[in-house]
Amino acid sequence: MQEFKMPTIDEIRNHPNPNYLEKNEIQRTLKDILDREEPHVESLVEDWVKKGVKNLYLVGCGGSRSIMEPGKYIMDRFSNLTTERYSAYEFVTRKPRAVGKGSIVVLASHSGETESVIEAAKFAKNMGAWTLGFTGKETSTLADSVDHCLTYDSPAANLSKLLMVYLVCTHLIIKLGDLEAGRDIMENLKKLPDTLMKIKEDFREKGLELAKEFKDTQMYYVVGSGLLAGVAYQFCICTLMEMQWLHAAPIHGSEFPHGPFEIVSPEVTMIFLLGTDESRMVTEKALKFAQRYGAKTIVFDTIEEDVHPMLTPFALGVMLQWFAYGLSIEREHPLAVRRYMGKVAY
User: Fold this and answer.
1) CA–CA gap between residue 308 and residue 56 (Å, rounded)
2) In this structure, is the dihedral angle defined by the CA atoms of residues 14, 20, 22 and 23, taken in order, positive or negative?
3) Do residues 281 and 253 lie in contact, with contact meaning Cβ atoms separated by under 8 Å?
C-alpha cells in the first residue's frame, strides 16, 4: 500500500465515472448468469439435498453482506431450513456451533480477495461445511478456498451477487419448502433481465431530477423493512458513505418508533424504500410520520413497476443507482473515487 495522500479537488472531479445503467449491461449480465450459472446451482442444490442439508449460512461484508438479506428473508418465509446471515469476521469470531457437516456456507466477495471472507471460507471448510463462493474474478483466493464458485463479469456487482443468492435460495425452497412459491419466484427471476431494462428507462429522469434537488444534502437516513432492509443498509454504507463521502444511517422501519423518530424535523432528509410485500405497511407508517412532522422525504416505490413482490430489491437497486449516479454528476464526485479503500493498509 502506498503512503496516504488525500485526492485533490481536480483529481476527484477528473476521475472516470462510468455508469453501467447507460447501456444494456444489466440485461447482458443477468442473462449470462441465468444461462451459465443457474443449471450449475440447480445441480449443486440437488446434490446437497440428497446428502442431507441441515442449515444455510450467508456470509459477506458491505455490499456482499447486504445482498444476503433478501436471501434470508425468502428462506425464512418459504422454507423450513434454518438460515442465518453474517458479516464475515463476525462469522469467524463467533464460531457458530451449528456449522458442520450438512451446512451450506455461501460467501461473496467482488474481488475474491476480501480477507475476512476468505477466513470465513477456511473456517467453514474446517468445520466440514459445503462452501460456495460468488465473485467477479474467475481466478481468486476465494475461488481457490471454496468447493464451488459462481462468477460474473460486470460492474453491476451487487445485482449480479443478488441474483446468485436468489438462485441458491429459490432452488432450496423448491426442494425443501413451498414448491409453488419457489417455482413462482424462479419464473420471475428469469424475466428479470427484461423487467429491469424497462425499470431502468422508466426511472432515469426521476432519479437524475432527485439528485439535482438534493445535491447539497450532507446527511441521509434511509428507511427500509423486510426484503428492503438490506437495500437500505447497502445504499448507506456502500453508496452514500463509500462512494460519495456523505453521512448516512440505515433505519429498519419496524425500529423507527423506538428511538429514531425523535430526530424527525424539517432539517432532516430521509429516504424511504417501499416494496409490495407485507412489510410495505411498516415503512409506510414511518413515512407518514416523517411527512407529518416536516422531514424532507425522498420515496422510492416499486408499486407501479411490473416486478414480483419478492424481487423488489432488484428494482430498488436500479432506481437508487440512478439517484447515486445523478449525485455523482451534480456533486462532481465520481462513484469510483476512494480516499482509503485499496489505497492504505487497514
Assistant:
1) 24
2) positive
3) no
CATH entry, 25-190, from 3.40.980.10, 3.40.630.10, 3.30.70.2740, 3.40.50.10490: 3.40.50.10490
The mean pLDDT of 34-56, rounded to a whole number, is 97
Mapping DSSP to helix (H, G, I), strand (E, B) and coil, where does residue 333 land? coil
DSSP single-letter state for residue 79 = B
Q: Do 308 and 200 form a contact (C-beta atoms < 8 A)?
A: no
Quote the radius of gyration of the chain (alpha carbons, Å): 20
In the chain, where do the E strands start and end? 55-60, 82-87, 103-108, 130-135, 148-151, 219-224, 247-252, 269-274, 296-301
Query: pLDDT by residue (tens digit) across 78-116?
Result: 999 999 999 999 999 999 999 999 999 999 999 999 999
- DSSP letters for 39-51: HHHHHHHHHHHHH
Give the residue among 203, 121, 154 at the shortest CA–CA distance from 32: 154
| Contact status, residue 258 vs residue 285, Cβ threshold 8 Å | no
- pTM greater than 0.85 (yes/no): yes
Report the C-alpha gap between 73 and 307 in whole angstroms.
17
SS3 86: strand
